[in-house]
Amino acid sequence: MLLFATMDQPTRRIVLAFRLLGEPGRRKITSLLRCIREQELGWQLYILRNHEDFSAEFVESLPRRKIDGIVYSMPEAKSGAAALARLDIPTVAVDIYDERLLHGRRRNLVYIRDSSDAVGRAAARNLTSQGCFRSYGYVADLMGNAWGRLRGDAFVDELKRRGLEVSRYRARGKGYDLPALAKWLCGLPKPVGVFAAHDDRAIQVIEVCHEAGLAIPGDVAVLGVDNDEMICMSSTPPMSSVQPDHDGIGRLAVESLKEMMDGRRLARPVRRLVDIREIVVRESTSAVSNAGQLVQKALAFIRTHAAEAIKPRDVAAYLKVSRSLADLRFRELQGESIGKAILRQRLEEVCRRLLTTNDTIENIAARCQFKRIYRLRDAFKAAYGCTMQDWRDSNRG
Prior knowledge:
six-stranded mixed sheet; 3 domains; seven-stranded mixed sheet; single chain; Rossmann fold; 13 strands; alpha/beta
């Protein structure tokens, strides 16, 4: 266990039980520590890096140690989690997908994780925007983790919504499965866009392609998750990857813990999902068709300017093509009009503001270019099946 204080006179004692597996874990805790330092919170930190240290005996001692708050991100520490479920100390659970670990804990608990739904849907939109694939595939992680299953569900659902079929590779067991993966991959119509549950799994897809003589991205385009640059840049060719907002998760963990310790008492668990940051495009998914490149350029423009008063004609003018051609290519590859894409992007910004700010719905509508509030209400209900207030209450507890 590591102990250090962020100021000379610490005001609160915090336990960080945080596993540092890979680049995502390092990014989250680095962001968390930076946020504590920048805000000069004066927290004395007890940092645990091994799940063996987060034992039931240690957790049961926390009230005697006068611990004020806990950040828990060790799903392997099950006995410690069971003890934590019996405490009332303000707790932020990061990347805990199996909420049975804290079964029975109701008060002063916030769950924070990246949105697997946003990851899977962004991956589907990115691959379909390239306009060059006869088929699509999803490769699950070997361990059968919940986040991998949820990413796959969202990817498949988004493709089916666009009228596209997708093949799903599920590993049999937890051992070496590359021969079976190669057989599945070789059987898919080419060219194929393949989305893998995480970067390490995507590297295995690339390895299989090299062994089978499949060209990347000509025969198989490969997209991973986490944007671990050491992995992505060492592959041949360099690999594209969905970048979750790991920095945002760290910041939100600090903000949520501080809120509870400052007096916001929670009578039931709150769940907060963090959207992706971006998709980092490299050679493994480079668009090979002119139509695909056109649509990708349009999507980037819409993401950048959706909060402004842009219309489909502005997108066409930016692309320097006719409005009819821009609409045609967009419908072919995205399965929706340019206007619908602008609306979807604005609704995503509405959700972000509902989750991260205390702005009134009227102010959010104005900032997101909805001049009439009833139009936003109707569009939001059609897209999410609930009112904006219900969505905010549900996602912020």
